[in-house]
């Protein structure tokens, strides 16, 4: 089964897509099939500038209207549909699609997630491509007591389970999240902001038309403001015990403004960017060191920021820090590959959550299915996945 995974993450900068060709062994074990995935194609397509501006303007803590949410739901769905059509045509068609859509609100009250909203109407994708679309994948985990995040813990566990000792996978998107795999189980959770706060400052001041600190060029010109950093590190969220989740409902531009106002002095914007970058390094390094992690595989846009990656390596001399490519999941498309895997699982009746990863009481099959051009035909269900091997297709 060829499955297309689509996602726009908490950086709200565009759509990541990956087509994975999954094959399962003919003789499954009692615990499930041995699954192999070959990444046939992947891409990242920025949102149109006007659409991204509208999206950012509608996000919390800003006020918006149901009319704007409805229009964004359609416009983002159409944008996803165009990306899906292009990459599907590139590989000669797909059997199914799994679209995460765009998170616009993640409702967390204390230690519990109560709801989540992703927009990007999947019917536009199904209509454009003609394949069934799995969507709305987070809410079922929340109804089972989980946080709906980080769902990537399911993929991480499959890729890391053969590593000896304590290993982990770190994703540095808008929010940093980590899956820690031990011989006796796993835990996964959102650590805090990765790129979210830096991106917000970059956009506010028009420092880079890309909307992020490309190659840490801006942060390199600044200095860490120790007093500001100390205040940021004192946020009570970091003291919560996993499982836990967060998002731009908490870590947003207004949050930065509040901390700057509390300092009662002018701080150069370059120093603010440098300090927020260091915040990511310190919060991640602290949790990695506390967990005794020996092997750390990093993915997400933040892994391309040399100040973050070099900072983590310097702060964690006892940890081998590598890109997720070493696990067979390219660092830039790992989350889209996860979506493809979730789509395969939903179509085959397989749960795609690990309770230790999200806090759910027990596993659940995720998502809602929108039929494609013809009748919805489901494959024969399987009991689960015993092992997963990922590889990239050989270049022609």
Automatic annotation (TrEMBL):
Pathway: Amino-sugar metabolism; 1,6-anhydro-N-acetylmuramate degradation; Cell wall biogenesis; peptidoglycan recycling. Keywords: ATP-binding, Carbohydrate metabolism, Kinase, Nucleotide-binding, Transferase. The keyword Kinase applies. One of its GO terms (molecular function) is kinase activity. It catalyses: 1,6-anhydro-N-acetyl-beta-muramate + ATP + H2O = N-acetyl-D-muramate 6-phosphate + ADP + H(+). Transmembrane segments: none annotated. It comes from the Bacteria. ATP binds at residues 9-16. Pfam families: AnmK. SUPFAM superfamilies: Actin-like ATPase domain. PANTHER family: ANHYDRO-N-ACETYLMURAMIC ACID KINASE (PTHR30605:SF0). Catalyzes the specific phosphorylation of 1,6-anhydro-N-acetylmuramic acid (anhMurNAc) with the simultaneous cleavage of the 1,6-anhydro ring, generating MurNAc-6-P. Is required for the utilization of anhMurNAc either imported from the medium or derived from its own cell wall murein, and thus plays a role in cell wall recycling. Belongs to the anhydro-N-acetylmuramic acid kinase family. This is Anhydro-N-acetylmuramic acid kinase. It comes from Microbacterium luteolum.
């Amino acid at each position: 089964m060829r499955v297309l995974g689509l996602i726009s993450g908490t950086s709200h900068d565009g759509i990541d897509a990956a087509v994975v060709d999954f094959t399962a062994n003919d003789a499954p074990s009692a615990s499930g099939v041995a699954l192999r995935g070959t990444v046939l194609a992947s891409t990242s397509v920025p949102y149109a500038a006007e659409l991204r501006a509208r999206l950012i303007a509608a996000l919390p803590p800003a006020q918006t209207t149901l009319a704007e949410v409805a229009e964004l739901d359609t416009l983002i769905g159409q944008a996803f549909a165009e990306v899906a059509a292009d990459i599907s045509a590139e590989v000669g068609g797909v059997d199914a699609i799994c679209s995460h859509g765009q998170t616009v609100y993640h409702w967390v009250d204390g230690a519990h997630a109560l709801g989540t909203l992703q927009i990007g109407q999947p019917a536009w994708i199904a209509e454009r491509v003609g394949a069934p679309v799995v969507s709305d994948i987070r809410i079922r985990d929340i109804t089972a007591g989980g946080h709906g995040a980080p769902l990537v813990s399911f993929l991480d566990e499959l890729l890391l389970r053969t590593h000896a000792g304590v290993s982990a996978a770190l994703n540095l998107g808008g929010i940093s999240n980590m899956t820690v795999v031990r011989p006796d189980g796993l835990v996964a959770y959102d650590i805090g902001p990765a790129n979210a706060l830096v991106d917000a400052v970059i956009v506010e001041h028009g420092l880079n038309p890309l909307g992020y600190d490309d190659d840490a060029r801006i942060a390199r010109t600044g200095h860490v403001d120790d007093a500001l950093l100390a205040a940021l590190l004192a946020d009570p969220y970091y003291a919560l015990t996993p499982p836990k989740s967060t998002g731009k409902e908490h870590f947003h531009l207004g949050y930065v403004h509040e901390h700057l106002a509390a300092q009662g002095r002018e701080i150069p914007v370059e120093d603010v960017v440098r300090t927020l970058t260091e915040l990511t390094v310190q919060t991640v390094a602290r949790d990695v060191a506390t967990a005794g992690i020996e092997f750390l595989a990093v993915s997400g846009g933040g892994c391309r920021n040399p100040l973050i990656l070099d900072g983590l390596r310097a702060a964690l001399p006892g940890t081998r820090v590598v890109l997720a490519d070493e696990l067979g999941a390219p660092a830039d498309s790992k989350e889209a590959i996860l979506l493809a895997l979730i789509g395969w699982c939903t179509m085959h009746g397989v749960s795609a959550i690990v309770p230790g990863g999200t806090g759910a009481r027990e596993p659940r099959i995720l998502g809602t299915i929108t039929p494609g051009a013809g009748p919805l035909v489901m494959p024969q269900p399987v009991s689960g996945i015993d092992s997963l091997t990922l590889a990239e297709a050989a270049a022609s």
